[in-house]
Every structure is written in structure tokens, then in C-alpha cells.
């Protein structure tokens, strides 16, 4: 197999920008809309956690297991869809995934206990695996490498927007109409968006890459990716940060409500606003900064991702353990989010650019498996377990800033030690 395309985002000498493939703009809009709904559906359970805990008579740990069940299925199904994408229509697989997760989200409204809620949320993972594994690879085939960081900046802006909508809309609907209404209201609209995927064009695989895509076995794929230091370093840091973001997203509204005394709807609104403002600014600024750093340093995508985690860690510590006034906490969290989201576009662009085009879908599938298996599958129930055992949710959340710092250090080591690769 030929070597991977340039990984660092460093351009060396400027090249004329190539036009995208036909249908690229429509595909970007549709896939970005799906990405937003992806995170709306993902975080609604966290917004109404204490509501269904009361109605279904659950413990703290049990309220987080549906999120972990979703992520377990999501991470296990992702490599499967990565392999299917090599021989099947990717737009059909994406349409199936969006429809499946939307129906499963709505089905949670009919849960009668822990088991049925767990089953419904686990089924969401099947649908999201089809979409999340394939969408970045499809976008990479629509746009040339020199445009991908900017395109992924647009695409991943939908992540904080969707997360914010999930918290704000979930909290509002849950408090005024019940948590069951919240699941129905965010689930069913996804069926309409799924139909839009069928209208997308199917781009040529690897059309913008020097190396043509080649089909390889799973064993060869894993061995090739394991020998790719840029890919491995990127995924290791991503795993630690995902551990942190999964835990804080699932538990921080409850922390504000239970520990700091904010009404649940206000806590969800505060987290939603901080996520969308901080996420939009962080994603946009991180993507722009990575492009600028490409002119002055090696591995600029790892550089900006790692450097941003240092203030993100400090601000998270301040918000969790040193502030008591709700407004001050929200301000610190918002600022922390700006730095925390700075990795979003650079890291995902790096995952695309660091591997052979024939491996992209499976590279994303395996990265999803790793970041969730060792990341946010573990953190929500671990925080809930420590909270149950100690009666101290504040103490349980200490693992969040530790994980953010660890992820940043991994990326910083990669920045300083991995060789520069010119595009």
C-alpha cells in the first residue's frame, strides 16, 4: 500500500485551490444538519436525567447506563459500517442510520423501566454508527485536502449547536411537558432529514488523493493504522478528551441543579448556551488557528489541539471547585468550552488526512471504537458510581479535568516529536 497523504496540515508551498466535486455544497449542508440532530438526540437524556430517574425509580449510576449502552453499540457497530461502506452505497447507509436513530430516540418515550430505556437508547447507537463513520469520509471525497480543515470546521460547528439544542430543548420540554415528550419531539424530525440523504450524489472514493483507494482486509487495516504514529497519537489524545467531555456533558447540568442549587431548566439552559457559544467560537477559532500555525510549525493540528487543553483544564477546575455563584460558574464553563472545542475540526481533519483514502471509513470506525470504549462509555457511570458510593458528586467530577489535561499532553508530545510532513 502506498504511504498516507500529508498529515500535518502544514502546506509548505501554496497550491491553487481545486474546486469540490459536483453536489458537494448540498452534501455539506445535509450532513451538517444530520450532525446537529445527532447531538440533539444524544444529549436529551442528560437534560432530563433527574426527571426519568424519579419516574422510573433509578439510581444515579442507572441514569447514566443508557448513555453508555448507546455508546457501546455505537462503537461496536462503527467498524461494521466502515467495512460495508467499501462495497455499498454510502448515502443509502447514512439514510438508514439517521432513520434508525430517530425512531430509537422516539421509542425511549415509551420506556416503562430501566431495561426498556436501556434497550431504546442502545438502539440509537446502531443508527448513529452508520452516519458518524461514513459522513467524514464522504466529505473528504467531495473536497480536496487543502479545503478539508475548513470544511470540517463548518461540519463540526453543528456539534456544539446540536448539544446546546439537546440540553435547552430537552430541559424546557421535560420541565413543562414531561421527559417522554422531550424524547418524541427530538426523535421524529430526523425521519425527514434521513430522506435528504437519498438526494445526495455519491462522490468518487479517493478522487482528490494521489494514492488510489485499495481494498484491504481488516487485519491489514488494523496493522497499517497501528503503524501510523500520527493516527495513533491523534486517537489517544481524542480518547482522553472524550472521556472528559462525556462525563461533564452527562453530569454537569445535574451538578448545577443538585450541588449549586440551580433550577433544572436554568441549569440546562446555562449549559446549552455555554456549549453553543463556546463550541461555535472554539471550533471556528481552532480551525482557523490550525491553518495559520501550518506556516510556522510542524503538526499544527496537534499543536493547536494540545495547547488549547491547558487553559481548558484550568478553567474546568475553577468552575467545578472554586466558584459558587451560578453566573460565575457558567462564565467559566463558557470560556473553558472555547478552548475545549478548539480540537474539533483539526483532530477530525487529521484523522482524514493521515490515512490512505481506502482506509478512511474504517479508520473513523476504529477511532470511534477507541474513543468511546475507553472514553465516554466509562466516564458517566464511573462518575455516577463514585457519587453513589461517596455521596459527593463534586468529588466524582475531579476525573474530568485530569482527563482533559492528559489528552492535551498526548497531543503536545505528538506536536513536538512527530516529524513534519509537507503537503
Description:
- This protein has a single domain, classed as Up-down Bundle (Growth Hormone, Chain: A), CATH 1.20.1250.20.
- The protein has helices at residues 24-47, 49-56, 60-84, 90-107, 114-142, 145-177, 179-187, 190-197, 218-226, 229-258, 264-293, 300-321, 326-340, 344-353, 360-376, 379-390, 393-396, 399-417.
- The chain has 423 residues and is mainly α.
- The longest helix has 33 residues, at 145-177.
Keywords:
single chain; 423 residues; mainly alpha; Growth Hormone, Chain: A; 76% helix; disordered N terminus
Strand elements, count: 0
Runs in which pLDDT lies below 50 for 5 or more consecutive residues are 1-13
CATH H-level name... which superfamily?
A: MFS general substrate transporter like domains
Mean of residue pLDDT values = 85
Instruction: Work out the helicity level.
Output: over 70%
Radius of gyration: 20 Å
Tell me, what's the shape? globular
Number of structural units classed as domains: 1
CATH architecture: Up-down Bundle
The CATH class: Mainly Alpha
What's this, in brief?
The protein is mainly alpha-helical and 423 residues long. It has helices at residues 24-47, 49-56, 60-84, 90-107, 114-142, 145-177, 179-187, 190-197, 218-226, 229-258, 264-293, 300-321, 326-340, 344-353, 360-376, 379-390, 393-396, 399-417. It is globular.
What's the layout of helices and strands?
Elements lengths: L23 H24 L1 H8 L3 H25 L5 H18 L6 H29 L2 H33 L1 H9 L2 H8 L20 H9 L2 H30 L5 H30 L6 H22 L4 H15 L3 H10 L6 H17 L2 H12 L2 H4 L2 H19 L6
Helix pairs in contact: 1-5, 1-6, 1-7, 1-8, 1-10, 2-3, 3-5, 3-15, 3-16, 4-5, 4-7, 4-8, 5-15, 6-7, 6-11, 6-14, 10-11, 10-15, 10-16, 10-18, 11-12, 11-13, 12-13, 12-14, 12-18
Amino acid at each position: 500500500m502506498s504511504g498516507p497523504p500529508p498529515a500535518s496540515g502544514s502546506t509548505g508551498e501554496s497550491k491553487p485551490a481545486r474546486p469540490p466535486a459536483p453536489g458537494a455544497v448540498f452534501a455539506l449542508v445535509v450532513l451538517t444538519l444530520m450532525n446537529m440532530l445527532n447531538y440533539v438526540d444524544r444529549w436529551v437524556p442528560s437534560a432530563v436525567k433527574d426527571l426519568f430517574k424519579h419516574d422510573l425509580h433509578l439510581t444515579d449510576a442507572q441514569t447514566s447506563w443508557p448513555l453508555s449502552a448507546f455508546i457501546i453499540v455505537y462503537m461496536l457497530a462503527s467498524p461494521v459500517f466502515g467495512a460495508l461502506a467499501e462495497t455499498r452505497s454510502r448515502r443509502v447507509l447514512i439514510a438508514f442510520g439517521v432513520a434508525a436513530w430517530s425512531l430509537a430516540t422516539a421509542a425511549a418515550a415509551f420506556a416503562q423501566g430501566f431495561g426498556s430505556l436501556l434497550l431504546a437508547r442502545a438502539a440509537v447507537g446502531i443508527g448513529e454508527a452508520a452516519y458518524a463513520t461514513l459522513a467524514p469520509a464522504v466529505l473528504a471525497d467531495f473536497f480536496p485536502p487543502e479545503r478539508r480543515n475548513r470544511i470540517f470546521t463548518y461540519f463540526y460547528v453543528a456539534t456544539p449547536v446540536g448539544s446546546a439544542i439537546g440540553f435547552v430543548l430537552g430541559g424546557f420540554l421535560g420541565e413543562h411537558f414531561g421527559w417522554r415528550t422531550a424524547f418524541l419531539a427530538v426523535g421524529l424530525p430526523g425521519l425527514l432529514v434521513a430522506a435528504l440523504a437519498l438526494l445526495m450524489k455519491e462522490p468518487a472514493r479517493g478522487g482528490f488523493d494521489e494514492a488510489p483507494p485499495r481494498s484491504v482486509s481488516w487485519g491489514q487495516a488494523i496493522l497499517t493504522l497501528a503503524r501510523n504514529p500520527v493516527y495513533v497519537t491523534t486517537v489517544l489524545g481524542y480518547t482522553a478528551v472524550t472521556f472528559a467531555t462525556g462525563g461533564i456533558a452527562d453530569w454537569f447540568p445535574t451538578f448545577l441543579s443538585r450541588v449549586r442549587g440551580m433550577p433544572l431548566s436554568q441549569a440546562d439552559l446555562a449549559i446549552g448556551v455555554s456549549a453553543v457559544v463556546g463550541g461555535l467560537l472554539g471550533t471556528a477559532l481552532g480551525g482557523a488557528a490550525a491553518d495559520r500555525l501550518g506556516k510556522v510549525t510542524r503538526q499544527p493540528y496537534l499543536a493547536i489541539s494540545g495547547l488549547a487543553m491547558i487553559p481548558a483544564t484550568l478553567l474546568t477546575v475553577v468552575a467545578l471547585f472554586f466558584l459558587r455563584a451560578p453566573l460565575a460558574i457558567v462564565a467559566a464553563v463558557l470560556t473553558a468550552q472555547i478552548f475545549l472545542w478548539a480540537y474539533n475540526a483539526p483532530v477530525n481533519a487529521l484523522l482524514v488526512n493521515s490515512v490512505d483514502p481506502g482506509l478512511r471509513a474504517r479508520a473513523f470506525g476504529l477511532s470511534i471504537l477507541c474513543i468511546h470504549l475507553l472514553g465516554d462509555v466509562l466516564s458517566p457511570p464511573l462518575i455516577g458510581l463514585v457519587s453513589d458510593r461517596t455521596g459527593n458528586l463534586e468529588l466524582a467530577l475531579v476525573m474530568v479535568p485530569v482527563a482533559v489535561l492528559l489528552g492535551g499532553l498526548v497531543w503536545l508530545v505528538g506536536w513536538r516529536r512527530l516529524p513534519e510532513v509537507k503537503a
